[in-house]
Amino acid sequence: SQTIHQWPATLVQPVGSPLSLECTVEGTSNPNLYWYRQAAGRGLQLLFYSIGIGQISSEVPQNLSASRPQDRQFILSSKKLLLSDSGFYLCAWNPALPGTNYGYTFGSGTRLTVV
Amino acid sequence: KNQVEQSPQSLIILEGKNCTLQCNYTVSPFSNLRWYKQDTGRGPVSLTIMTFSENTKSNGRYTATLDADTKQSSLHITASQLSDSASYICVVSAGEKKGTYKYIFGTGTRLKVLA
After folding, report:
1. pLDDT tens digit string along B25-44?
2. How many CB atoms lie within 10 A of CB B63?
3. What is the CA radius of gyration of chain B?
4. Cβ of B43 and A42 within 8 Å?
């Protein structure tokens, strides 16, 4: 069965510090991978998605970047965090099968607080 | 513009009572509609998925309805339990060219069940 792992669960970082959140998927190959951010009281905002190794699409220009160094690994990074980067970050995946509509399977999330 | 609106924004009910959450959407072309449950500090988990031709779908005490004509969906929770306290998110997918899908998220309804 497929599983998705996301870590760390919580993170408190000072303004200006770097960030690295990691997400891995097991039990599948060539998944579509996504990073979402959920601000308090607001809906999920798509940040990045990837359809393959090294292929990253950005939905919203911002202080963050994403990388996919391996097929089932997706990393969210920042060189210098801003206060506005605080939020709940979710990694998600779905099968990369054209013409299908599987929705998402989400990771457990990372609560980032920038102080 | 593709949009998903949920109401109410928040809801408090007593344990054992029933409740209904609403989702209105303007998404085209409609593919399917999902309800997710998101416990505090966790990733969303899928409850139900409904396609254009489905009117009702149940998952235990959760029953989702879909009216494709009025573009409305509801999630009915029967005999609520304390563990039902969570955010409930409506997600509508729209078909795009090349056989891919775009997912539009509602902002969620925050349900609190009191003993």
Report:
1. 999 888 899 999 999 889 99
2. 17
3. 14
4. no
